[in-house]
């Protein structure tokens, strides 16, 4: 009788959680995010000039009009992505946007090597769209406050 009892020995229940499947899922998600993250940062590189001017305090995200060395325009509406745009469409879209959001600051950005005439032409287009105040963007200098 003792031999039959030892054959049917009960196993102890484990009270541990098997985390191996969770680690596998986490690693797959990590790889997916590492592959897709560089694709999400579509932007226009702008090497802004430096200045010692104070930064502008604003409660709302600004509208940024960027002009590059070739004279192409890019419009960024309140934290969105820069969109390539032509001069007539830029004026029309800014006019419609500023009509509904009159307190939103509008900035003009250009790399340091862009001709001054192109920056001035961009400011004229922005003012023709009915924007009351146009500001220029720059990188903070060493003595900026």
UniProtKB/TrEMBL annotation:
Sample GO molecular function, one term: transmembrane transporter activity
**A Pfam family:** ExbD
Q: Which domain of life is it from?
A: Bacteria
Q: Its membrane topology, per UniProt?
A: Single-pass membrane protein
* Membrane spanning stretches: 21-44
Please give the biological process terms from Gene Ontology that the record holds: cell division; protein transport
Q: Where in the cell is it found?
A: Cell inner membrane; Cell membrane
- Could you list this entry's UniProt keywords, alphabetically sorted: Cell cycle, Cell division, Cell inner membrane, Cell membrane, Membrane, Transmembrane, Transmembrane helix
Show the GO cellular component annotation of the record.
plasma membrane
Summarizing the function annotation, the protein's role is: Part of the Tol-Pal system, which plays a role in outer membrane invagination during cell division and is important for maintaining outer membrane integrity.
In which family does this protein belong, per the annotation?
Answer: Belongs to the ExbD/TolR family.
Assembly description = The Tol-Pal system is composed of five core proteins: the inner membrane proteins TolA, TolQ and TolR, the periplasmic protein TolB and the outer membrane protein Pal. They form a network linking the inner and outer membranes and the peptidoglycan layer.
**Name this protein carries in UniProt:** Tol-Pal system protein TolR
> What's the encoding gene here?
tolR
